[in-house]
Write a structure and sequence with these properties.
alpha/beta; eight-stranded mixed β-sheet
Length: 286
């Protein structure tokens, strides 16, 4: 099943969001990361739709063709965006599937309104409130500093947005991505205001975990980790288990930080049984 021609636009949390969409059924809100776009779900959206889900993949706050925001986005705002999108879609709850900053947005939505997220799939990013600082982790997260330094936006954009491929190589060294993979991300971040908004997530980030995100997670959660991730190995996800009060699983699949893009079939093999499992109480969307 192919998405409808062009994106669907939704007004949510004071912003006009562009979304890709596949299928009918219980809602899966698929949230991309950085540097990426909603088109990263193109191989997975139709397969989730074929499994009986309605998949909506928004271009996150500020990522063209979503409207540029008036200010940098912090974690609470990203969580409010998720809840606003559910409102705009007329859905009381959904399955949340997020990668990188999309995972942060999903974690934030769960913290703000756990009753609105039936199950959570977080890819590539453990829950920040449960992370133990280490030198290795500090080195892995150095981009949180470099992407906020003066001139970061211009440096990232040089040589036809070479910063995208540089981070993809660093975070997913086993991924043989192509120019075709890069093209939609370059097109998005080349749009006026888009790269500035994307880097604004880092400018607004704080070292200290916001108080609302320190609450234990109360919904069933699957963390999908790249077995070949040089920065955040699966063991880092396992170490966060105590932060989760409901069912918690870690699935390691081939690939690095972008393991869902490197290994779409293993990703679906891990995620579909989790999404379709009957919960102990009726909390399913739709």
């Amino acid at each position: 099943m192919s998405p409808a021609p062009g994106p669907r636009f939704l007004q949510a949390n004071g912003l006009r969001f562009a979304c890709l969409e596949w299928g009918r059924g219980p809602l899966v809100l698929a949230l991309h990361g950085f540097p990426d776009t909603a088109e990263s779900w193109d191989p997975l959206g139709p397969k989730l739709a074929a499994a009986g889900f309605h998949v909506v993949a928004p271009y996150l706050r500020g990522y063209a063709p979503t409207e540029p925001p008036p200010r940098d986005a912090d974690s609470r705002t990203l969580g409010e965006d998720v809840l606003g999108l559910l409102d705009a879609l007329g859905e009381p709850r959904a399955f949340g599937v997020g990668h990188d900053w999309g995972a942060e947005a999903a974690y934030a939505a769960v913290a703000l309104a756990p009753e609105r997220v039936a199950r959570l799939v977080a890819i590539g990013i453990p829950h920040r409130a449960a992370l133990t600082p280490t030198p290795r982790l500090a080195w892995a997260l150095r981009h949180f500093v470099t992407l906020t330094l003066p001139g970061a936006e211009a440096r990232f954009a040089r040589r036809d947005l070479a910063g995208i491929a540089r981070l993809w190589h660093r975070w997913s060294p086993t991924w043989s991505f192509t120019e075709g993979d890069l093209a939609p991300v370059k097109r998005c971040l080349a749009a006026p205001g888009s790269l500035h908004a994307a880097l604004g997530y880092y400018r607004a980030a704080s070292v200290r975990t916001p108080a609302f995100l320190r609450r234990p997670v109360e919904v069933p959660t699957l963390n999908v980790a790249g077995a070949d991730d040089p920065s955040v190995p699966p063991a880092t996800f396992e170490a966060t288990r105590a932060h989760f009060r409901a069912a918690f699983q870690v699935a390691a699949i081939p690939g690095g930080h972008f393991c869902h893009r490197e290994s779409p079939d293993p990703f679906l093999a891990a995620v579909l049984p989790f999404l379709t499992a009957r919960p102990p109480s009726a909390r399913e969307p739709g």
